[in-house]
Specification:
single chain; alpha+beta; 7-stranded antiparallel beta sheet; 22% helix; 44% strand
Length: 142
């Protein structure tokens, strides 16, 4: 009898803690909860190689770049095709709101991409100290 009463009390305390925590999150400003988020919206062929459309939000006064990398997954033999691109610090709008960036990726010297290629695309922030964060990855077919 004592153990079932204790279990109910513990369950009640845990539920109260979860609800209290949820209330704190709900009460937090939406802008603060959305900072430093990335989402890959679209990947397409572009005259320079590839282009990635990214929705992003970031903290005010952060000094970082938005980086995008693509790797072709359906290459033949030892063929490895990859491309990279960045959006520099001064081109990002960091005010906690959602914004869209088009990242142009340049392929490596022997890389090439065509319609139907299957890609692994990654986007992330890169700061002055070399740290990466908010990484997102998506598989995309051109």
């Amino acid at each position: 009898m004592k153990s079932s009463r204790l279990r109910r009390r513990l369950a009640g305390a845990a539920a109260a803690a979860v609800l209290a925590g949820t209330g704190v999150l709900v009460a937090a400003p939406a802008a603060v909860a959305k900072a430093n988020i990335l989402a890959i919206d679209k990947v397409s062929l572009h005259e320079s190689g590839l282009q990635v459309k990214v929705t992003y939000s970031c903290d005010v006064d952060i000094n970082h770049q938005l980086v995008a990398n693509a790797l072709k997954l359906n290459g033949v033999g030892h063929e490895v095709s990859h491309a990279s691109g960045t959006v520099k610090v001064d081109k990002l709008i960091c005010d906690f709101r959602d914004h869209t960036a088009l990242v142009n990726l340049r392929p490596a010297a022997v890389s090439h991409f065509a319609k139907g290629d299957k890609l692994e695309v990654k986007v992330y922030y890169f700061d002055d100290d070399g740290f990466t964060y908010a990484q997102q990855k998506k598989i995309w077919v051109l």
